[in-house]
Amino acid sequence: MGDAFPFPYRIFFLYIEPISALAGAYYAAIHPSRYLLDLVSPIQSEFTWVVPDTPTRMGLSQLANLYLLFALNEHLVLSSTSSLKTWQRLLFCLLVADFGHLATMVPAGPEIFWNVWKWNAMAWGSVGFVYLGATLRLCFLAGVGLGRDGLHATKLPSSSGRESAKVGKKG
Fold this sequence. Notes:
Shape: globular
Number of strands: 2
Order of helices and strands: HHHHHEE
Number of domains: 1
Radius of gyration: 19 Å
Oligomer: single chain
Largest sheet: 2 strands, antiparallel
Strand order of the largest sheet: 1-2
Strand content: 5-15%
Distance between the termini: 16 Å
Structural class: mainly alpha
Helix content: 55-70%
């Protein structure tokens, strides 16, 4: 159903980003020591491998659960509709979450946001990938690539007979 939108948006929001979130969930839940080590290593080079205590493991399990929710929500909601309004609303919420996620990186110092040559895989995911997602969300919300009618939903009948808001498509 989401096929009314340009391919770059569909591939990123329906597949790439949810799979990335599932990878984050996997590492936070199954490999918490690795997750923590990679998270802080661009910040503290003297960090050593430790087995997380129970409260930390519980927090990481809750984080993993939120990554799972994020992945399922994004993929299942967006793939089930061609409603421009639904896509805009969900992507706006995820954009707010992007800024919140970047705010959690502030304790690392300002270098974490621009010193890309020091980034490890976790920093690329926690900063670089978030930059990409936020940029694509801003572009979508601004109507970039959605065509002349991209900001105005049209009513088209759905296969169930109900009407749904759909991005206007020629042809």
